[in-house]
Design a protein that fits this description.
about 120 residues; mainly alpha; 3 strands; about 45% helix; globular
Length: about 120
């Protein structure tokens, strides 16, 4: 990220995978987005169930972090090949989006992604 400051980078799954537990993960993500304006954080796959809303309970540290850097986070399905769970996978983000300010929720839900593609929003 540092070596290519003009390249937009997306940090898939906020850098985690199954069985990876990082106690101060929000602090690390905060430091990274503060330091690298070309970095966007993807909140798809296990990051949501494992850290953002474990057991369906929203972790306010993530809400606060996203509000602090509202244009730096995107959601996604991480769906490949099978799409029968596509809709419920995306609907689970309503818990997070409803906790964010409307302008922030709009950015996380689609505006930031469209800006990465160079699209209008």
């Amino acid at each position: 990220v540092r070596t290519h400051p003009k390249t937009r980078m997306i940090w898939a799954h906020a850098g985690i995978s199954r069985r990876i537990v990082i106690p101060n993960h929000t602090d690390i993500v905060r430091r990274m987005v503060a330091q690298y304006p070309n970095l966007t954080i993807d909140l798809s796959w296990v990051i949501f169930d494992q850290e953002i809303a474990p057991g369906g309970v929203l972790d306010r540290r993530w809400v606060n972090l996203i509000e602090e850097f509202p244009g730096r986070f995107v959601i996604g399905s991480d769906t490949v090949g099978f799409f029968d769970q596509y809709k419920p996978t995306l609907q689970r983000y309503y818990l997070l989006l409803d906790a964010l300010k409307p302008a922030t929720a709009r950015k996380v839900a689609h505006d930031t992604f469209l800006s990465l593609l160079g699209g209008r929003h």
